[in-house]
Amino acid sequence: MQKDEKKAYREWRRTFVTLWLGCFMTGLGFSMTMPFLSLYIATLGHFSHWELNVYSGIAFAVTFLAQAIVSPYWGNLADRKGRKLMCLRASLVMTFTIFLTGLANSVWMIIALRLIQGAFSGYVNNATAFMAGETEHGRSGSVMANMMTASVTGNLIGPLIGGTLADLFGFRIPFFITGVMMGMVFLLTLFNTQEHFKANTAKVLKPMKEIFANLKNTNMIITMFCTTLMVQAALMSVAPIISLLVKDLMGNQGNVSFVSGVVAAMPGFGTLLIASRLGHQMDKTGPIKVLLAGLAFAGIIFIPMFFVTSPWPLAALRFLFGLANAAMLPAVQTILTISVPREAFGRIFSYNQSFQAAGGVIGPLLGSVVSGILGYQSVFLITACMLLFNFYLVFRIRKVSTE
């Protein structure tokens, strides 16, 4: 019996390490290419400032829009065929679409490839659902937190590698390297992961309407979807304006690009520092308490950002926001994991991905509009209000569910 347990643990560990590496390489590839997408597009034609902004915005947003629309379909297929197949599908398609983006000769080819990539992507989301299905509930918090550190680490390192490669060899090379990396992710996932999943036919699979009807607290699940949207929107709302704000705070003097990179990266360092510890805390005290603490802390941290007059206090506050960020989305994923039956993991996590993708579209749009009307730092106050309202929603739904 002990031998069987040791074998099962080795299989689980190998699967976890492989999927962690897959998520890391996916995050690495994304951040190696995305920060320089607009600069790459600028090399493909003679665009005005307005045209370049519009084309870059479309190329960025079209992936998230496609994800939001298509994710529920892939979630249904995941619950019938397994999450491993979905990871293979996502990594294989991204191998070709990202590599071909490096060969693009027009902005519309980039937009088309980004659309296809969005429609077929979802490696990180499916890898998370994969591990949720393979992990006992008592360890879900720590596993979900550790899975988050994979893409966060990749997102931190990616811009440094991508920027160096782009400076040395041009903007196309990072896309070629990312395409090759996603091919490696496909092979690693194919040969080095083990999924204990019994395939279901569409007839056997319970419809989501029935599953929601049998859940103990459907409102909690819906609130978690909304939380994912608002947290992602909060994360992305400042993305379009960080470098512009840093430029203003520095009076357009000094190494603006470097300082902007430091300020942009600080939340990732905070998240990495505390994610594992918070994961264990979720397993002890429950994810809902950790989520509430994260939302409250994040909302409060955004308020002093409105008053900063130098990029370095802003960097410090964004580091603190990274600590709060480690408590939010992993807590949401853990709540979903322990609140729904395993047979619905694929669909539930895909719906969650749709809301996350919607937040990825709404956040930058909100940040751009608010900063255009009220100024850059007003975005922080709007984001603080959004997170504190989210705290109120989760607090209320928790109170109702315990009465």
Q: In which range does the helix fraction lie?
A: over 70%
State the order of secondary-structure elements, H for helix, E for strand: HHHHHHHHHHHHHHHH
What fold name stands as the CATH topology of the largest domain? Growth Hormone, Chain: A
Rounded Rg? 21 Å
What general form does the structure show? Answer: globular
How many strands appear in the DSSP assignment?
A: 0
Model regions low in confidence, pLDDT < 50 over at least 5 residues: none
Q: By CATH's scheme, which homologous superfamily of the largest domain applies? A: MFS general substrate transporter like domains
Termini Cα gap: 43 Å
Arithmetic mean pLDDT: 84
The structural class is mainly alpha
Number of helices in the DSSP assignment: 16
CATH class of the largest domain: Mainly Alpha
Number of structurally distinct domains: 2
Write up what this structure looks like.
The chain is an all-alpha fold and 403 residues long. The chain folds into two domains: 1-204, MFS general substrate transporter like domains (Growth Hormone, Chain: A, Up-down Bundle); 206-403, MFS general substrate transporter like domains (Growth Hormone, Chain: A). It is 83% helix and 0% strand. It is built from 16 helices and no strands. The chain is globular and about 65 Å long. The protein starts with a helix and ends with a helix. The mean pLDDT is 84. One of its GO terms (cellular component) is plasma membrane. It is a multi-pass membrane protein. InterPro entries: MFS, MFS_dom, MFS_trans_sf, Tet-R_TetA/multi-R_MdtG-like.
